Amino acid sequence: DVRAAGYNLITWDPRGEFASEGVLQLDNPFFEGRDTSAIITWAAEETPALLDDDADDPRVGMVGGSYGGGIQMTTVDPRIEAIVPSIAWNSLIEALYPNEIFKSAWATTLLLALVEGGARINTQIYEGVATGVLFNWLSQGSQAVLGSSGPTALLSNMKAPTLFIQGTIDALFPLQQSLVNAQTILENPFGTEVKMTWFCGGHGYCLDPVNPTQTSRIVGDTIAWLDTYVG
């Protein structure tokens, strides 16, 4: 859909997964966030990207869901014109350890998916899942890893216009996560444009009849956002 709308598209294996080297850090701004900035620099130098005022500044928008939504908010790079994070999070601690109650089913499912894909994972994540499942407890080290892997305070400096897409039945990253994200951006001093759309879906299964136009409307909103701020 993005290609059909006339945009060049770059996608990649995140740090520590599949063909990418390094250790997976859960969309940490100092690791995965810097990787994304390096890709933007590569795009300016090696692709026919439309450049802004200087040779190192391509016209860039970001789209993606879940892990691909989180990275958009943890990439601190002023060259990004707009973002569209879908079914993403504000705080992994609130998502996986709310009120010090560990979501063992979700954490185990996510970890197994990474292991089956051959991911190379920060060992603190393994430790956190083990103690969470066995004792309903996360060490300070494990909490620090989760706390460093999300947008939280970064959104106070967000200048890129942001369209949030969040699932109404999402059991991993519920609507409240996107509400906190949006509110944090709205309260920052830059007057950043923020919109939000909700749909029946996300990390979970929609039991309500799904509007047959839902997917096309989400895609349409995404392309319209890119057309407004990137195209």
Question: What would you note in describing this structure?
Answer:
This protein has 231 residues and is α/β, with parallel strands linked by helices. A four-stranded parallel sheet has the order 1-2-3-4, sandwiched between helices. The protein is globular. It starts with 31 loop residues before the first helix and ends with a helix.
Strand-helix topology:
Blueprint: H1 32-46, E1 60-65, H2 67-74, E2 80-86, H3 92-96, H4 104-116, H5 123-135, H6 140-147, E3 162-167, H7 175-186, E4 194-199, H8 214-229
Parallel strand pairs: 1-2, 2-3, 3-4
Helix pairs in contact: 4-5, 5-6
Relevant terms:
alpha/beta, 4-stranded parallel beta sheet, 8 helices, 231 residues, globular
Summary of the model, kept short:
The chain has 231 residues and is α/β, with parallel strands linked by helices.
* Helix share, percent: 25-40%
Overall form: globular
Low-confidence stretches: none
- Mind summarizing the main beta sheet? 4 strands, parallel
Number of helices: 8
- What is the radius of gyration? 18 Å
The total strand number stands at 4
Tell me, rounded to a whole number, the average pLDDT: 95
Describe the strand arrangement of the main beta sheet, using strand numbers: 1-2-3-4
DSSP strand content: 5-15%
State the end-to-end distance.
15 Å
- Structural class, by secondary structure, is alpha/beta
* N-to-C series of helices and strands: HEHEHHHHEHEH
